[in-house]
Amino acid sequence: MDISQEWKNAIEAIVADPGITLVIGDTDTGKTTFVLELINTAVRAGVATAIVDADIGQGEVGPPSVVSMALIDHPLEALREVSPRRMYFVGSTSPFGHMLPLAVGAKKMTDEALARGAKLVVVDTTGLVQGTSGRRLKQHKIELISPRHVVGISKRREIEHITSGIRRVESINLHQLKTSPESKPKAREFRAARRQRRFFDYFRDAERHIIRLDDIVCWNTFFTTGRNVKWQHFRVIERTLRAKVLHAEVVGGGMYIVVQCGPNMAGVEALKNKYGTREFTVVCGMDFSNLLVGLADARGNTMALGIIEAVDFKQRHMSVVTPVATVTPVKIVQFGSMRVRPDGTELGTVKPGEL
Question: In this predicted model, what pLDDT tens digit does every residue of 66-77 receive, in sequence order?
């Protein structure tokens, strides 16, 4: 793709005064092309450079659903040539409903890049710029990472409601650019197929591993976070819900219950009255299957993605498909908000509190 003089001027200005650089724009405006040109120019100029890929749906560096960070030490033909040094698990390919972890992930990966010696950290973002959601996400991300440069690429004026709030911030250099005329819109089906391919490539060499529940804690769910309910209570719960109880624990002021299948949800009200609590979560054992998860170490650093095949509540372990050689360092299983097969087929989303 030919680079306009306007783009060249912005790239030269950023390389001459490197720092955290946030690139924003709608979908299909050429953000990835600009990021690639900026990175290559910086590397050729001898500037220590890193990329933070925060496009969780259509990113280039890591698999979908994560914010990825990579250090760049040579010019690239394409961003997908590099592998992430670190990842932050968001658990979804859509920013909607995940703006807080997306912003936190961008901050943590930017800090990681700086800690590893990068002088120029280029942060690529999702194409969510429209409406209140787009404005809030970008503004909070700017507040968190404190960029030296913000590059806004637009077709017309679709990001003006974001950039207008940046102009008066003295610490930020705003570069407003027009999209390349060579940028072409991509169909939704193309984007879905691309995500599937990236998931498939990531899990291509994955193997099944067993993770003991007593060795880990789960995040983004009540599961494994409470005190196990004594078996004497199982019979009461089973009679009320008319379903076999596989697992139950007291969490906070309520209860988290896993049943075999088909619970009588009308019985939940009776349980609330019996135990004097309004917080009851009832899920089916099969609901854990195909859940996308992040596998993190004892410091909370995401090591890899995994897909839960099944949970054996009696033997207290879960079967997880993941490309890592060993799951011994895994201490935290981060529950995602989507289901996916190892071949990359997306099976739907998981609503907050559903699991």
Answer: 999 999 999 999
What count of residues does the chain have?
A: 355
Instruction: Name the average pLDDT for the chain.
Output: 91
Q: Distance of CA 92 to CAs 56, 232, 254, 349, Å?
A: 7, 38, 27, 8
> Token digits for 226?
């409470």
**Which of 150-159, 265-274, 327-336 shows the highest mean pLDDT?**
327-336
**Identity of the amino acid at 117:** G
Collapsed DSSP state (helix, strand, coil) of residue 278? coil
Q: Is the pTM of this model over 0.85?
A: yes
Give the pLDDT band of residue 54 (cuts 50, 70, 90).
very high
Which ranges of 169-241 does DSSP label H, i.e. alpha helix? 188-203, 234-241
Q: How does DSSP classify residue 306?
A: E
User: What does the alpha-carbon distance between residue 319 and residue 312 come to, in Å, rounded to a whole number?
Assistant: 8
Task: Give the pairing of strands 66-72 and 49-53.
Answer: antiparallel
How do strand 254-259 and strand 280-284 relate by DSSP bridges?
A: parallel
Rounded to the nearest 5°, which phi and psi values hold at 277? -140, 150
